[in-house]
């Protein structure tokens, strides 16, 4: 570190002591995790990403897994939900087919996702985020934007050090790690959080933005996927620096509204603010089979079990949904999605299942399926959910029975009580 580094604002990420010299290690605690940046005291927009979230939670709960490659996913024919960094070094990636992941890392420990547990950890982390600022915008179960502008008086510190203290607290109290990206806009905050994972803290300032982006691939820009990247490459555009030389009108003439996004983000121009209304739009559950299924009774058993999982998540989230969505994927990977809007919102497994069953009956024609899923959208407050059904008087009795079953499961475990639809199928699934 050159002597000039002494004049750049910085602190130690472990002990949080200010750094007033150009030393490579903290003079107070000896840690090499020093953070220095010319704009460190003026930036306040952050993106926080939990490191290999599902795998980290499983390693936290089972210390024997600490030094082992861990893959979170379901069955040999499923896909990888996430993988720890040891498994990633061996070539495992999210969304990779499980059989390919096990070819790349045969010694990996495979764990089926436990979404209820991960959701509990998410709520814990999010509550800590809201202690920093009310401006929290969740993007998914394991990442969120935070705007800490104006919080210096509250925390008696600059946002950068507040975020470092937060990351340390998560590690100590929750038992997982996070990576932080700090910048002046959402686009670059998200880019920054991915630069030094795991346990990273990266800063991209406004003065350096254009030069930082110049050599990066166009796929770094939000919304540029493989298909659009192929279109850009066909037009001779591979790097963001090439976009920086082009006029906005020309880009819009070629690519429409996406051209305007290319022009602005390539120059680090992003005026999007942190929105706090990023609630979930749907609640769903799905499963990939170990072998393709065409028999109706097997598909129905899975549909019932998944409906119960969706109902449980709705209850835990204090939500109800009015549109039931059935998802199927055929043996040749073609997706089928069917939906039906109910007269009133529901949070009952019985109504979700019976609606899904009517949709499924039209698709059971001998086709072999590799995946089935059920979910609800049009989410709302549960106060209006499941009014008495005057057309089907037995619906009230089924709802009461479901409530009794839920109480038994809460007390004795999820598999303590089964319906006739699922009885015996859990053993065959295992």
Automatic annotation (TrEMBL):
It is found in: Cytoplasm. The active site is at 143. It catalyses: DNA(n) + a 2'-deoxyribonucleoside 5'-triphosphate = DNA(n+1) + diphosphate. Its EC number is 2.7.7.7. Its cofactor is Mg(2+). Monomer. This is DNA polymerase IV. It comes from Sinorhizobium numidicum.
